[in-house]
Amino acid sequence: MSRVVTTYHQRVAQEKRALIVTAATALFLELGYDRTSLARIAERSGVSRATLFKQFPSKAALFDAIVTESWSTADEEDPPPAGNVVDGLSIIGRRYAELLGRAQMTDLFRIVIAELPRFPELAHAQFSHGKMPYFESVRSYLLAENEAGTVRVEDVDLAATQFLGMISNYVFWPTLLVPGWEVSAERVAQVVDEAVRTIAARYATTGPGASTND
Question: Which segments does the entry list as coiled coil (predicted)?
């Protein structure tokens, strides 16, 4: 019985946490980070102030949670195993495109850009808690492929940046900057496939499109 009760309380806490994060994101967009108080967030989310402060003792902690959840992949998938760079990058590319296509990712960047002059720490949190951990996971995958001999990459940081940039420059940045910009699922798939082929042509040592460069 105690396990059932514990599971119930955990589920309720997770649901309230999601309500708080959603309400905070909306208020940061509407009012700005500075003008949004934790009390107002509690009111918008429908939870008590005590509940909110128990989960998030400060506004900075709440923003960190928004960053972490925005950058988290569905089900927290493990990186693909090394051995086939085309298959592995295809998996990573699809995950990245799905991540960038979420409304909360666009909201996060808009908050950071709007508040950057007054609150540069938000940009730091976005970079250190969101973008860099994700980048590091892609970098680690390419290192594993390099060690497996399926690719020859001298500058792994550059290769990871090239791959992610080819996807984000088409499926994300126009959405952030151009009202009404939409990219179809078919086009997203094509963008990912082309990015994979480009990286394979440049760095792969085996398989289709393998580089012949020494």
Answer: none
